[in-house]
Amino acid sequence: MLKLMKLELKRNNMRVYVVASAVCCILLLGLIYLIASAAQLEDSTASQKEFRNYVNIFRLTGIVSLSIFSAMSAIIYSRLIISEYMGKRAALLFSYPVSRSKILLAKLLLVFIFSSVSMLICTSIPYIIFCITESISPIVIQDVMTMELMIDALRTLSIAVLALGGIGVVSLRLGYIQKSIPTALISAILLSAVYGNAAISANGTWLSLLISGAGLIITVIVMAELTNKVNKMEVE
Amino acid sequence: MKNEPIVVIKNLGKMFDNTFVVKDSNMTVPKGCVYGFLGANGAGKTTIFKMLTGLLSPTSGTVEVMGLDVTKDREKVLRGIGSLIEAPVFYEHLSAAGNLELHLDYMGTKGFGVETALDMVGLNEIGPKPVSKFSLGMRQRLGIARAFIHKPQILILDEPINGLDPMGIRDMRNLFLALIQKHGMTILLSSHILSEIEHTADIVGVIVNGTVMQEVSLSKIKEKADIRLEDYFFNIMSGGNVSC
User: Fold this and answer.
1) Under 8 Å CB-to-CB from B103, ≥6 apart: which residues?
2) Which CATH superfamily groups domain B1-64+152-244?
3) A206 in contact with B at a CB cutoff of 8 Å?
4) pLDDT (average), residues B175-200
5) Which of A44, A195, B27, B240 has its CA 20 to 30 A from that of A99?
6) Smallest Cβ distance to A94: which of B54, B77, B91?
7) For residue range A23-60, what is the model confidence (pLDDT) as tens digits?
8) Chain B contact for A95, CB < 8 A?
């Protein structure tokens, strides 16, 4: 499987997604400071004042990060799977003496690992920088940065990564039905807004894990169904 | 063993949208020969090639390659096949060598090796240029190199001379001959150009409206001085049945 994943990396130019992830990291860093600063303005609205505590700042940043990386994972899934199986490359791919299921699984795993690691790194970096600057010279004067807060932020991030895997695969399947990358992209954004929000914002770790677990089961079912479809595919 | 059949098709049929595009076709390809598949555009040559390589599943009949059923032993069959079907598709950002290396990795063999294969198709001085900048002829040569680089037993080439200049066509004919004589391959090639088949094939299969009408040894036709090759095939392709 590792060999197949390496070959996928060779066949597909992933550099563009690495650059995109770095840009997302910078945007998230800007966003976290923007949220914290906007809430401190004297004429800020009641809803802005909600962000005078770190929990909500991290939560909003996490939701935005999930939306961004869901969209990105949908695009990568579409490029690696929808474009490849729907286009002329399918004939080339199916001419290799390798199980079609294994190739598909290698693609799914590669995108999942890539988007999860990207999200983890590109969200953690803004969090860490923000935590450090807040410890030295805080913008949020109404709250105190504690170790517990940082652990909670990382817990939310882990749940978001789990949700990301499910959102990516389900949006890929929806895009596959229509043979359309925009469909996959829109599905990813909608799913991250609804399902991702529910998973991150659920009160309590167990509820969050339950929502993520349900998502995981749906993901496995979708993957099995997609594998079956690819195995029976014909190249006309 | 030479003359032992390496490809056997029995009562093969393929239906698309309730219409049979290939029907009741039988075909036998002996080992170590060049089998020329002749037919007009849309006669069903590519569809049969796709069924031979497992890209399409037959609606009826059986396809046996190297004694294996293609639908049941797809991966084993693919290990022994090299193919170029329709316009070759490549990873455009990679060089010719990069594309061939990738192919060998998937095939799990070193085959002829990248440099040798590129040399055999006359692309030895191509360098690291990405395939996206290749001309049609260069792409075709690279497609042929990819088809044989892993040393398959059978080469399936759909219209292999498309986009090649006369020099290129001659080079490829010599290459095919060398692959058979030195490396024991069997070649199935399709064309709608009669002269091409005449120059390369040992056996000719003529397909008309989805059915293989006749399989005949080219040398047998040539032995009969009273038959003009062109007339012979035109007669079959226009619905007549000539025995040889």
Assistant:
1) B146, B149, B150
2) P-loop containing nucleotide triphosphate hydrolases (3.40.50.300)
3) no
4) 86
5) B27
6) B54
7) 999 999 999 998 888 777 766 666 666 767 888 888 88
8) yes
**DSSP three-state, residue B37:** strand
Q: ipTM score of the complex?
A: 0.84
B-chain residues within 8 Å CB-CB of A89? 89
Alpha helices (runs of H) in A12-99, residue ranges in sequence order = 15-40, 46-49, 54-77, 83-86, 89-93
CB-based contact, A15 to chain B, within 8 Å: no
Cα(A81)–Cα(A110) distance, rounded to whole angstroms?
Answer: 11
| Predicted pLDDT at A103 | 92
Contact across the interface for B91 and A95, Cβ inside 8 Å: no
pLDDT of residue B99: 94
pTM of the model: 0.84
Please give the interface size between A and B, counted as residue pairs whose CB atoms are below 8 Å apart.
Answer: 51
Q: Inspect the interface and report whether the beta carbons of B78 and A96 lie closer than 8 Å.
A: yes
- Contact A7/B107, CB-based, under 8 Å? no
According to DSSP, the residues that pair with B35 across neighbouring strands are: B188, B203
